Amino acid sequence: MTPPLHGRRKALRLLGIGAILASAGTGFAYAAGWIGAPALTPQRIIDTFEAQAGHHPGYRKNHAKGLCVSGYFESTGLAAPLSSARVFSQPRVPVIGRFALGGANPHVADAAVPTRSLALQLSTDDGQRWRTGMNNPPVLAVNSVEGFYDQVLASTPDPKTGKPDPARQKAFAEAHPEGAAFRQWAAQYRPSDSFASTAYNSINAFRLINDQGAVQPVRWRLEPHTPFQALPTGIADPDYLQHDLQARVKQGPLRWTLRLTLAEPGDAIDDPAQAWPAQRRTVEAGTVVIDRVEAAEQGACRDLNFDPLILPTGIAPSDDPILAARSAAYAESFNRRSRERLETGAHP
To answer: Among 116, 160, 167, 279, which residue's CB has the most CB atoms within a 10 Å radius?
Structure first.
């Protein structure tokens, strides 16, 4: 395990990751008027994203910079006793996906953003769809929509410096002790040199339901087969991760193991800020294989809304309120960009 950072380096790392994750998640707090008076709606949070990063027509309003990929999922069959979802019994399932960076700026340098995401749609032969949006952190820094609101306020860039105010960040951390697990992860985090060598986590919990109606809460994780190498320093290419992924796929398919972690009684099912004990039982559900990379915003993923509540029979959401809020924010982002023409002459 990489030794934790200390002093100024640790503080800068935490501030950077916290700011990006705030932009990656804070919109969820504003859905359906849950916070504030007057109501802070999904429309207002998308306006906030654009106010901070600029208006970029046709791009997603969060995780704006990304590229489309496709491939397939090969099931082991080991998860079929836990869920009636066809994805766990069909031998091979087509996959459309999207690798992306956190934040609303589609022109940010790849190496400058600590938060990476992988969104997938798995389409089974019974006509059902499973969409999942995963991120490299295993947990969130907050466990409520109100917490997200606090986080966006604390992470708003100071106009004078262009960066969050460290004092506000510190006050936020002190006010939200539930973020201890996230801060521990962030202090030890070392970015890899590739999307291909990054692990991706569901963060939120879901419920698997089998043919007999038995329910098993789970979280899932994609574990890369590509060995870890640290991200180099002094990268000049702003599209380093995209170019790397394209080069790797030309050499052969990339693979991740889909591992389900099974909750036990007492585990925090509806709290995405709490880690589950490391000794929890896991099930190797299958392998995600990516064998094609498409143009950044012109591929098959372009018109997909990776709403985490688009689930097949046999997979159900937990009662985590952040899931419903994510869905509302994603819908607003999708509806807005679908009415826009992708800006031309811009860096992809």
So the answer is: 116
| Dihedral-angle region of residue 162 (phi above 0 means left; psi in -120 to 50 means alpha; beta otherwise) | left
What does the pLDDT look like over 144-181, one tens digit per residue?
A: 777 776 777 777 777 788 778 899 889 999 999 999 99
Joined together, the tokens standing for residue 212 give 């007999």
Q: 3-class SS at 174?
A: helix
Pair of tokens at residue 185: 């992860």
Strand locations in the chain (E)? 66-75, 92-101, 116-123, 129-135, 200-201, 206-209, 215-224, 254-262, 282-293, 315-317
Neighbours of 232 (CB within 10 A): 9
**Domain membership of residue 298 as a residue range:** 7-338
Check if the beta carbon of residue 43 is closer than 8 Å to that of residue 154.
no
The pLDDT value recorded for residue 16 is 47
> pTM of the predicted model, to two decimals?
0.82
348 within a domain of the structure (yes/no): no
Residue whose entry in the numeric block shows the structure tokens 């801060």: 183
What CATH number corresponds to the domain at position 239?
A: 2.40.180.10
Question: What is the token pair recorded at 139?
Answer: 């947990």
Q: How many structural domains is the chain composed of?
A: 1
Residue type at position 308: P
Q: DSSP character for 199?
A: -
**pLDDT tens for residues 233-264?**
999 999 999 999 999 999 999 999 999 999 99
Cβ-defined contacts of 276-282 (< 8 Å, 24+): 276/219
- Output the pLDDT for position 60: 61
Judged against a pLDDT cut of 90, whether residue 53 lies above it is answered with no
User: Is residue 57 assigned to a domain?
Assistant: yes
Q: Write down the residue that tokens 């106010």 correspond to.
A: 51
